[in-house]
Design a protein that fits this description.
Strand content: 25-35%
Shape: globular
Number of strands: 15
Low-confidence stretches: 1-15, 23-45, 51-74, 124-141
Largest sheet: 13 strands, mixed
Mean pLDDT: 78
Structural class: alpha+beta
Radius of gyration: 21 Å
């Protein structure tokens, strides 16, 4: 995270900014020699300067920004729902919230509707940093970090569900709300994994997501099989994910390309605002697939500061650009009309205050109950997601809010 607008102290802010800036500067200088393999010399300098300039712009803290009662700089009023993504004053409130978020509890399977921004495990970026990470992860949301993790509530969930043990098998990513699957025994965990393998063997998408996007695809619905591949953009092993329409079996066997079965349909469109709600069902969400795939459909996810700049416009018509393009690393600004409706500042700063509008709505477990009987577990979107839908006149139909069921 580059900027935490709700930090507790100036020293904490300064420390985070210096650390983030050193990380970015070190990376781009180290990868500078690798860029010349596919980029002219002049464009090399443009890429480096643009990225560092945008980083400094995101890190700047203006003294004339309004402050809340605790003296934290902010651009949003305290009553704004984006300011209250983590309303828990202490850990006990957070644990109570997760217990109340249980949407399914039967036969050793526990399903929780995870709040937005809550990590699964405690993570130390210095000791657990992996080499093959996606480069732009450091350019994440400007929202304040959640002080708690799902792991903190495991004991309370065990006590409430009366299970001696719980294991997290599958979960929505951190900057997303929705489904988390927990197993009370190893046999239940194996049943979940078997159901996932069964769906993948049938080439059947089984994870359902809702997304609020700027822009909308040309077709109202589609069903296809695509690939996602990580391309090197630096000699340190940093990657950029790209969607491929065509790929070979050899690439799949070598695991350089991950095939994904995906279906989507447009649930609601606001053409004057060029925004919509999309329902996406996929067989994988790895490597930020949802964000990258939607950007390839010229409809980037609101709040996504990683891949939204791959979508550009000329004379009002959207088009996509390559991640090798310098402009693909500039943070995308939202139209003033959308900013006004969402009650956020105009431009880049406003977009960085918007949470990533992705929700893991349902999960299909094939043959989980018995052979031929599937289990569908679902979770309602969080309040900030529904508020954004309301502000943009994108309310989905009530009958789309399905409940857990056996099919």
């Amino acid at each position: 995270m580059l900027l935490d607008p709700y930090c507790r102290s100036y020293k904490e802010t300064a420390f985070k900014l210096q650390r983030s800036y050193r990380l970015l500067k070190s990376y781009f200088i180290n990868s500078f020699t690798h860029i010349n393999m596919w980029t002219p010399h002049k464009l090399q300098k443009n890429i480096l300067c643009t990225l560092l300039r945008n980083t400094q712009r995101c890190m700047s803290v203006k003294r004339n920004e309004p402050k809340d009662a605790e003296g934290c700089k902010t651009s949003l009023p305290s009553s704004h729902c984006y300011r209250n993504l983590y309303p828990w004053k202490h850990k006990d409130e957070f644990i109570d919230c997760l217990v109340k978020s249980i949407v399914y509890n039967n036969d050793g399977l526990l399903v929780v509707n995870k709040p937005y921004g809550v990590p699964i495990y405690k993570h130390n970026y210095q000791t657990h940093e992996k080499k093959n990470t996606i480069t732009q992860t450091v350019l994440g949301s400007a929202q304040v970090e959640c002080p708690y993790v799902l792991e903190d509530a495991l004991d309370a969930l065990k006590s409430y569900s009366q299970y001696p043990d719980l294991k997290i098998v599958k979960s929505a990513e951190r900057y997303m709300s929705g489904i988390v699957l927990l197993a009370a025994t190893e046999n239940v965990a194996k049943k979940i994994e078997k159901a996932i393998r069964s769906s993948k063997t049938r080439k059947q998408p089984f994870m359902n997501y809702w997304a609020i996007t700027k822009g909308y695809p040309d077709s109202l619905m589609s069903e296809e099989r695509v690939g996602i591949k990580l391309f090197d953009i630096g000699q340190e092993g940093h990657k950029q994910p790209v969607i491929l329409k065509k790929f070979s079996k050899k690439e799949v066997l070598n695991k350089t390309v991950k095939p994904v079965n995906v279906e989507f349909r447009t649930m609601c469109i606001n053409k004057p605002l060029t925004s919509c709600i999309l329902e996406i069902t996929t067989s994988s969400a790895k490597w930020h697939f949802l964000r990258v795939y939607l950007a390839s459909k010229v409809s980037f996810v609101l709040g996504d500061n990683l891949y939204s700049s791959r979508v550009r416009q000329i004379f009002g018509r959207p088009f996509t650009i390559s991640p090798h393009n310098t402009a693909a690393y500039e943070i995308q600004s939202l139209p003033n009309e959308i900013c006004s409706r969402l009650k956020i500042p105009n431009g880049i700063k406003g977009h960085m205050l918007v949470p990533v509008m992705l929700h893991h709505q349902s999960f299909l477990l094939s043959d989980f109950v018995s052979k031929g009987q599937n289990l569908l577990v679902s979770a309602l979107p969080p309040s900030h997601f529904l508020w954004t839908c309301s502000q943009l006149d994108l309310l989905p139909e009530p009958n789309l809010m399905v409940e857990c069921s056996v099919t």
